[in-house]
Design a protein that fits this description.
Mean pLDDT: 85
Helix content: 10-25%
Structural class: mainly beta
Oligomer: single chain
Number of strands: 15
Length: 174
Amino acid sequence: MALGQSTGKKWYLVYSKPRQEIVARMQLERQGYQTYLPMLRTPRRRLGKRTIKIEPMFPRYLFIRLNKNTDNWAPIRSTVGVSNLVRFGMEPAPVPDDLIAVIRDRDDHSGVQDVPLHEFRPGQMIRIEEGPFTGYEGIFVATTSRERVMVLLDIVGTSARTQIEIAKLGPVDD
C-alpha cells in the first residue's frame, strides 16, 4: 500500500517566500502538518577554500501531506514563510507518493543528500582547483578509487601522471 492511501492523505507542493523554506517548514510543523523539505550537501568554493553548504534541493519549494477532505487548509497560506500552495487551475497539485519515496530514499541518516562529485570522462580536460598544482590543466585519465583519480599533466614539457583527489578537480570552462 502506497504512503497516504490508508489515510487519504497526499503530498502537495508549497511555494515559500524567497530563502524561507526552513522557516515555512518549521511553522507548518508547529501547526501539526507533516512536511518534507529535501536538503542537499553541496561543495562550494569560497575565497579559494572548499566549503560544504546545506541547502534546499528545490529552492522555494517544500512538500506537505494533507487529506483534501478532512485537513484544515486555511492556515497554510497565512503561515510565516509560505507564499502559496502550487495549483493547477483552482485545485492544489498533488505530488505522486512514489516521487517523494524516491527522493527520501536518497537521504542520509540526517535527512540530507550529497551532490555527486563531477564525473569526468577519460580524455576530458580538467583544471586542478586546490593543492600544490592549483591552476594547472591536465587530462583526466581514470578513476583509481572512490575519491582519487589519475591525471596526466604537462609539467615543463614532460608528461607526468599523478593521482589527485577528485574533489580538487573541476572541468575546464570553454
